[in-house]
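Lecture 7 notes: from sequence to structure.
We start with the chain below.
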Amino acid sequence: MDLHAPVQYVKGIGPQRAEALSKVGVRTAEDLLLHLPMRYEDRRSFARVADLRPGMRVSVSGEIAVAGLRRARRLTIYEVRLDDGSGRLKAIFFNQPYLRETLARGKKVVFYGLVERDALASRLLVMRSPQWEVVEQDEHGGIHTGRLVPVYEKLGPLTVKPLRRILAHLAGQVPEGLEDSLPPDVRERLSVVGRGEALRRVHLPGDDDRLERLNAFRSPGHVRLILEELLLFQLGLARRRSRLRAERKRAGFEVRDAAREAVKRILPFPLTGAQKRVLREIADDLRSPHPMNRLVQGDVGSGKTLVALLSMVVVIESGWQSALMAPTEILAEQHFLTLRHLLRRCPYRVELLTSAVKGREREAALARIASGEAQVVVGTHALIQEGVVFHRLGLAVADEQHRFGVLQREDLRNKGYDADALVMTATPIPRTLALTAYGDLDVSVVDEKPPGRTPIRTELRSASERREVLSLVRREVAEGRQAYVVYPLVEESEKLEDVRAATEAAAEWAAALPGVRVGLLHGRMRSAEKEATMAAFSRGEIQVLVSTTVVEVGVDVENATVMVIEHAERFGLAQLHQLRGRVGRGRAASTCVLLAYGRLSELARARLEVMTGTEDGFAIAERDLEIRGPGDFFGTRQWGMPALRVADLVRDRDLLERARAEAFRLVGEGPLPASLAAFLEKGGWEKRFGLARVG
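Predicted structure tokens for the same chain:
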């Protein structure tokens, strides 16, 4: 059997269905076999009609004793009575008049469905549109009943019953001795069954298969197919990492005395042990003749930005340039202001290049970048995508922010930049993501906060409790403290609306807090205005800062002890956690108030309860992944996440760890086993996972 044969030659498909299936990515027999059931139902035992009660979901078997078609308004109703010797059960089917040929009087059938009380005659029991099977006509034995039955999601034009019939026939044809991608020793180490057996058993489970294992995707067939897919993906990552480590870069960067002096001028306080450890790891990468491809992650307030900045200093003092790229222009601007502030005692020029920089100003900035006069360049990914000319780019730092595709060193190389790559995430990322989207990067974790930080109390309040929130802000301000009030950012395309909302909000807070100096920060302000506003807030001249721009990064005001997040239900978990991290930076007790409006959706309530339950960013990231599921969390395509067909990154975390260990072991041992290398090539796996662009 050729699994790579076009799907149109599978029995029951044909050219027309094949064309429709190709639009949902199903082109071969193997593609179809990898469309696994979403669940299984036990339809092996038949209930007696006499024992049925409303609410039971059962299989019944018998003969059709009465059958008739009637019309009711615009409906045609086909009604039958099934007799099993113990009693009669009514079954009705809507707008399926053709069933009178198939489910005719005298036919032996099996029905599976929900038993209900008949609305017209309460003493009668009825099944509405049950799954059915004519026993005498089924050459396979029971496909839809009488066994552990797989239930599928609709696939292109194929609904559940035709799909089940087609896949039962196709799986039955998979031979015992199907060519296996995994060599015997790998199968033994992973404790998995052969590929042929796995493909058969997920679609045709036997009586020895346990229903709960099937529904948990932990039957022997499921485990084999999931581990195979994850192993192939991790093999691609391991090979990419191996090839990258074999490359050589133009220059290694030594930590010079000038860099050490600059670091002393920059540091506002001593580094934590974690920051020192991560800086040593980065310094080793910078010194190495091989390119750096490293991910630095840590919780809010752990000092990742400072680590990245100190890495840039090493590169600058070696005579090269550094670039910092953020996912949005607002965040790029905030990074620019932060770096300018931290580097104020150093002679380095920091350049901001966004779409807001236009005309002669832009030309001058581009000239400074090309000449090397600008040593630190801040912008969005457009810096790389538009091919901005650098004098000598040595280090590219990307602030990922969970928002867009991972900066890969080959992206830099493809644009002609021979630079080291450092990726930062604003909030911690789930381990699953670290092993997939970032799986070929070396990972450093800043897992320690600066000393003296106090825990932040997080409160969920409804709009009706606004008076208490105002009292809290008033009390803190009276004690000489400061507060943030953040509103959800209106979309970029509606910036005028953003300004209006911000202005009204600031006026509202100023009216509610007479005598308190209320400042305003919004997306339409010029960079210099924002800088002046933030400086005034840092000096304590502004007591309450109302903002619709995201004050997520680079704002470090120890005297700020209250963060009020208006319409907290509209923010994502990562953003809420990051906003909360703007307070609690000094020794005074701090409070974060999540102010929610209206009736909360289940998802919104779950998010806000996570926030009130923990301050641990790593735990929050894992819960966020569980709440939203991998597709929504990763924004699969933009994340550069794998297009997985059978594995699920939340459900299969334990298997991912096993697959990764095996993949990196295989690549470390030398050339891949021939069967595995051939399978990778033949199935186009690396291409499907977006891993084929290396080499």
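Points to note: The first strand starts at residue 39 and ends at 42. Confidence is low (pLDDT under 50) at residues 636-640.
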